[in-house]
Specification:
The protein has about 190 residues and is mostly helical. It is about 60% helix and about 0% strand. The N and C termini lie far apart (about 50 Å). Bound molecules: zinc ion.
């Protein structure tokens, strides 16, 4: 702490030391990622955004990671058992996730661009784009929830039912958001 105090401008600064400047120095503020606004925006459901943020940082405790640390006996995907359970496998390559995504694509009628890290386009302010990100966040959240249900309770919803649940949640969110927008427009 002494080094930080001397190296910083806390002595010469008229304000001197403040708790916020000390906190900033201690946590070494990281530059904002270019995808944060795709996750942390008012359209996305907060619990979905939390999981997506963890995924984007590659912090999810998938079996491949736990196996490497000696915390489990194998690294196989709990859902399909056809590969190591990595983030990429779980959300992009797993047969279950592929089927869920297929049903979602049929429903929404536009291409769902799924990418774990990179390849994301900056958000535009159009409705389609917002719905795209809303769906994308919901997909990750529910696939992870199903994986946990399969691991803890040995149950797994059928892909079509899973896609239906995601669709319902997304539709409810769109209604809430559009309702708020129209109310705000009416009041002006
Ligand atoms: Zn799998």
């Amino acid at each position: 702490m002494k080094n930080g105090y001397v190296a910083n401008t806390w002595i010469s600064n008229a304000k001197g030391y403040t708790i916020s400047s000390g906190h900033e120095w201690l946590r070494q503020k990281q530059p904002q990622q270019n995808w944060t606004h795709l996750i942390w925006n008012s359209w996305n459901i907060p619990k979905h955004a939390v999981i997506t943020c963890i995924i984007m940082h590659n912090w999810l405790n998938v079996k491949e990671k736990l196996f490497r640390l000696g915390c489990c006996t194998d690294d196989r995907c709990i859902i399909c058992d056809s590969g190591a359970e990595t983030q990429n496998h779980l959300f992009l390559d797993c047969t279950y996730s592929k089927l869920v995504l297929q049903f979602l694509k049929q429903w929404c009628g536009f291409k769902i661009h799924v990418s774990l890290l990179g390849g994301l386009q900056p958000a535009k302010t159009c409705l389609k784009q917002q719905v795209h990100y809303l769906l994308w966040n919901a997909f990750y959240y529910h696939i992870w929830a199903q994986r946990n249900a399969a691991r803890i309770q040995s149950v797994l919803l059928r892909p079509q039912k899973m896609a239906g649940m995601i669709k319902e949640e997304v539709c409810q969110r769109i209604k809430i958001k559009l309702g708020r927008t129209s109310n705000r427009t009416d009041s002006t």
